[in-house]
Amino acid sequence: MSYRAPIADFQFLFREVFPIDRLFALAPYADFDQAVTNAILEEGGRFASEVLAPINQSGDREGARLTETGVVMPPSFKDAYRRFVADGWNGVSADRAYGGQGLPEVVGAALNEMWQSANLSFALCPLLTQGAIDTLALCGSPDQKKRYLGKLVTGEWTGTMNLTEPQAGSDLGLIETLATPTGDHYEVRGQKIFITYGEHDLTENILHLALARTPHAPSGTRGLTLFIIPRYREMPPSARTANEVRALSIEHKMGIHASPTCVMGYGEKTGAYAEQLGGLNRGMEHMFIMMNRARLSVGQQGVGIAEQAFQSARDFARNRIQGRDLKTGEDRVPIIKHPDVRRMLLTMAAQTEAARALTLWAFFLSDLARHAESEPERSISDSYVALLTPIVKGFATEMAQEVTSLGVQVHGGMGYIEETGVAQLFRDARILTIYEGTTGIQAMDLLGRKLIRDRGQAWYLLEADIQRSLDTPELEAVSHLVEPLRKRVEQLHGVVEHLLREYPNDPDHCDGAAYFVLMLFGTVLGGWLLAQSAAAATRVQSVSGHQPFLKRKIQIAEFYMTLLLPRADAYAKAALASSVSIMTMDDSEL
Hints:
Blueprint: H1 7-17, H2 21-24, H3 34-52, H4 56-62, E1 65-67, E2 70-72, H5 75-86, H6 105-118, H7 120-139, H8 142-154, E3 157-162, E4 178-182, E5 185-196, E6 205-213, E7 224-230, E8 245-250, E9 261-266, E10 272-276, H9 283-319, H10 339-371, H11 375-411, H12 422-429, H13 439-452, H14 457-470, H15 473-476, H16 479-502, H17 507-544, H18 548-564, H19 567-576, H20 580-583
Parallel strand pairs: 3-6
Antiparallel strand pairs: 1-2, 4-5, 5-9, 5-10, 6-7, 7-10, 8-9
Helix pairs in contact: 1-3, 1-17, 3-6, 6-7, 6-9, 6-10, 7-8, 7-9, 9-10, 9-11, 9-12, 10-11, 10-17, 10-18, 11-12, 11-13, 11-14, 11-17, 13-17, 14-16, 16-17, 16-19, 17-18, 17-19
């Protein structure tokens, strides 16, 4: 299955919708410009299409295997990872002090989307390592940073996130893994499940970032501490000491077969060596650094796999000859000529582009939150990132379910056959709404933490920005898009007001509405960003003349506003509906 990175889409967003020239004016990014960014994106696109995409299906067929010596990856993945690291892709946005290239997060995010599109199973490994880098950079001691960050940034070592246990799924307060202090370190005993890339043979060492509780720690999540547990304690290989940590099994999954999802055992005999990372009993606080980064990145996985599904469906529709053209009467035409097939393809394209803009905008704001010159801009950007994180994760991954399913549908019976590859995309995408917090968890985070707890403060600031943008001269050229969007922004405002007012009186109703609220936010914000995209395309077209790429941007936005934005009406109506039908039926009657 071929893949072509949507370089022009990235460049257009960076140049016209949220210009990254704003970032290049900041001291940390002063050495970069649009030309450098374009070159990096083009090289990244080549790596994705020429190295990662060709081994996606073979990796799915071969899968990761657990042997007596450990987890063995498909041989093609080993070669691809060596090239990935040698070309410097692992640390593009990492601090230069530790071997990174120091690029803005949003550029690294565009590259990450390419990796996810081309080969989701492969890309999960560097995704988790990036989260470990962020967490160590913010919470590690100077000595830990010195010993570990350089290896993670270069990709010589990889990192994992260890949260879930057999008895503790989403309720991390039930974690039982025990870390006992012993001299200058801890000995950890316990078991973790669903650990992505918990063991593999791509690198010589793996750093596990694991939540555990110490003796006499408070109950629940308040008693959790974060630990570094290396696979090998000492390096280089000639002197390395194996730590008491190993994969007990790997899961046989619906999808992402080449990504080893491991059951990990710690300290089966004497205890696994571990170092405390960050403050005692502050594990959840520190782990949220990694989790929030992963949630944005998983949203990108949704965008990436949707892009691949769209490309595959579009190419198939252009070449599959079936039926008659309804207008001309021409017989034996490509199925792309049929209105219903065109509806599916445009739905796939518009949903993907809306989610891409939303996701990259969140990373753009993350760069401003860290490096903007004024404290107010850093603070506001940070509050927007917090608000957007559950929306990006939930909306983009739910979108991927629809788009990959439509990809199978466009292929017809051929889509249900594994050889075409689109069934794999459908299978791979299914996990995205589950790991790193299900859609329901994201929805309750959005409602409970991001809206109710601060009385909607971040949303009201963002809403004011949106309303101002709708009144700017730039959007007058696409007024036919602005008016339906303005109606839905006002609708969203009313839903938020209702929930803020009703939550203390009827939390069941509000929590039952949370999913609809999340999808309402994603639908409206996606439409707003597509309207800005269409306005920018109109502006550029007025200067440079007609271009098919720019025309497509405008038409994609028009399709979204006409046929997809109205979904907001149903989400809003459901969010305002009574909770009686959800909670009154007896459990035994369900």
